[in-house]
Design goal:
Layout lengths: L4 E7 L2 E7 L5 H8 L18 E4 L2 E4 L12 E3 L12 H6 L4
Parallel strand pairs: 1-5
Antiparallel strand pairs: 1-2, 3-4, 3-5
Length: 98
């Protein structure tokens, strides 16, 4: 059995210390451990972009980024883009109309 890796990461402005398995992807940690459900896991192959988050201000696909890779970094999810309860212009205008 592989030992867990301790990481320190800032997610949406909040500091977290997490213990993660070496092969665990960021998408699973965000959704399952931290209950950040705003983004979606679409293809699990970094093709569709549905799981894109910002890591140190650069877009990455959370489905193919190992959780340990964000140690000592800053992650922003769709929840972190909200300002005063509203979305940033990019996600707000990219939603399909009803």
């Amino acid at each position: 059995m592989t030992e867990a890796i301790e990481i320190a990461v800032t997610i949406n402005g909040r500091a977290h210390r997490l213990s993660v398995a070496p092969r665990r992807v960021l998408a699973d940690v965000l959704r399952e451990d931290l209950q950040l459900l705003g983004y979606k896991i679409g293809c699990d192959q970094a093709v569709c972009g549905a799981c894109t988050v910002l890591v140190d201000e650069m877009p990455v696909t959370a489905c193919t980024t190992f959780a340990f890779e964000v140690d000592r970094k800053t992650v922003i999810t769709i929840e972190g883009l909200a300002e005063g309860g509203g979305l940033d212009p990019v996600p707000r205008f990219s939603r399909p109309s009803a």
